[in-house]
Amino acid sequence: MLRYLLFPALFLAFAARAAPPDRYNVRAYGAKGDSVTLDSDAINRAIAAAAQAGGGTVLLPAGRYRSYSIRLRSHVALYLDQGAVLLAAAPVGSVGYDAPEPAANDQYQDFGHSHWHNSLIWGENLVDISILGPGTIYGQGLTREGPHQAPVGNKAIALKLCRNVILRDFTVRQGGHFALLATGVDNLTIDNLKLDTNRDGLDIDCCHNVRVSNCTINSPWDDAICLKSSYALGYARATENVTIANCQVTGFDRGTLLGGTYQRREAALVPDHEGPTGRIKCGTESNGGFKNIAISNCVFAYCRGLALETVDGGLLEDVVISNITMRDIINSPIFLRLSARLRGPAGTPVGALRRVSISHVNVYNADARFATLFSGIPGHAIEDVRLSDINIWYKPLDAASAASIQADLPEDEKGYPEPQKLGVGPAYGFYIRHAKNLSLSDVNLHLLGSETRPALMLTDVQGATLRQVTVPTGVAGPRLVLREVSGLVVKDSGGLPDLKLEKATTKSF
User: For residues 352 and 317, what is the distance between their CA atoms, to the nearest angstrom?
Assistant: First the structure.
């Protein structure tokens, strides 16, 4: 009788030993995690073993793992445990990261957008992959620049044409050109990340069905969360069906978010010399356009404002933004730009920017050099924009800026779309040009000092309703300036008269 009982027990013990483990510990594959040994090969062996078994979780326990390129595989999760640091090693001579693969197209976007393999972690044409855990990716050996002769790494994480991806809970310190570049990635979930990086945070390019939530991103030298739709795949593809919720974006000095000091001493070091970036933005790469975007419950601090830009022929449409608070904003709190840079194939037409709703926004200490700015170009108007429950406090101009006020802003149709490149504007609150079917409701402007310019300037605007728009009354000169405006209604607005104008060539109130 005993032998019959032993056989099942022996079988179960053998099966337990033969079954693939549910976690593939990289130390079992030779990783040391001692900050000296190069652990790339061991980590890649663990990933390959998990993939060969049909999938699983590759575990990096506590330790510092120096590494070059890590190649993800389908159905595999990479888990960084508490105390684990994946350290991007500096190349040594001809030894380093995977070479940048041949580009499907590299004419219409820069080097960093056009390659993925030259990264610390990369994956292409994969399904069901994850990077998880409370550990840290430290891109110490990555570059934030373009092509190099040495085998350098350009990004912390790069994903191309993947599906069903989860990025959750980890920290990125100093992520190189991009902490994340995701191009043509569908069903992408990004949750509870902390990024304190030296260029872009999250670049989400030509992606569908994306959820970004609960992320804290400090990126003083570039954008924090940036939706793009480049031509890097060799064709135009929209970024669409995207939610961004419960995130914080900032432009504090590099490393001081994670360090907890939140310093503001490095503004002069920002490469474009226009102050810290750190914002949420659609663009600049905009060949494929942006559709069905919802942004809510986000905080901006010491950075640039919200930017929606389509300049390369794409459609930017059906965008809803709500419950945003901003403080110490260094350029336009809200920047909507439709223009004709047209960095794409010959014959690319001008795109469109339309059906945008922005509500429940509070901005304190905004830079009055750059009003809330909406600008299309002649013959191509921004359409159907609705603003409601907006409160903005503008700080006063310094003497040098006051001496640089322009009578109007340049059109700059082919230029890079950035408010500061247009110069100090002729209005402090709203500057709206080449637009139609515009509605401002319950919008309140406040001044934290003296001001000589009008609160609002509308140029080439067809159909605008201003209801319960309040502007300060202690400013000398007009509060509302109109140029080539038709179909204007102003109602119940503090500091402005009730108006119903069919057409005004030039008029001030």
Answer: 8
CB 318 within 8 A of CB 291: yes
pLDDT per residue as tens digits for the range 347-389: 999 999 999 999 999 999 999 999 999 999 999 999 999 999 9
Measured CA to CA, the distance from residue 305 to residue 397 in angstroms comes to 18
Strands 178-183 and 34-38: unpaired
Distance of alpha carbon 500 from alpha carbon 490, whole angstroms: 7
Burial class (CB in 10 A: 0-12, 13-18, 19+), 499: middle
Per-position DSSP letters for 426-475, written without gaps between them:
S-SSEEEEEEEEEEEEEEEEEESS---S-SEEEEEEEEEEEEEEE--S--
Cβ 216 vs Cβ 239: under 8 Å? no
Q: Give the tokens for residue 255.
A: 């490393």
**Measuring CA to CA, which residue among 310, 184, 162 is closest to residue 239?**
184
In tens, the pLDDT along 98-153 reads: 999 999 888 999 999 999 999 999 999 999 999 999 999 999 999 887 677 679 99
**Residue 384: other Cβ atoms inside 10 A:** 18
As a three-state string, the secondary structure of 100-116 is CCCCCCCCCCCHHHHCC
Contact, 350 vs 338, CB < 8 A? yes
Distance (Å, whole) CA 95 – CA 89? 10
Selection from 307, 343, 313 nearest residue 415 by Cα:
343
How far is the first Cα of the chain from the last one, in angstroms, to the nearest whole number? 103
Structural domains in the chain, CATH included, are 54-508 (2.160.20.10)
**Could you tell me the pTM of the whole model?**
0.95
| DSSP of 281-322 | EEEEEESS-EEEEEEEEEEEEEE--EEEEE-SS-EEEEEEEE
- In angstroms, the Cα distances linking 197 to 144, 170, 219, 321, 419 are 10, 13, 5, 25, 23
Distance (Å, whole) CA 58 – CA 50? 7
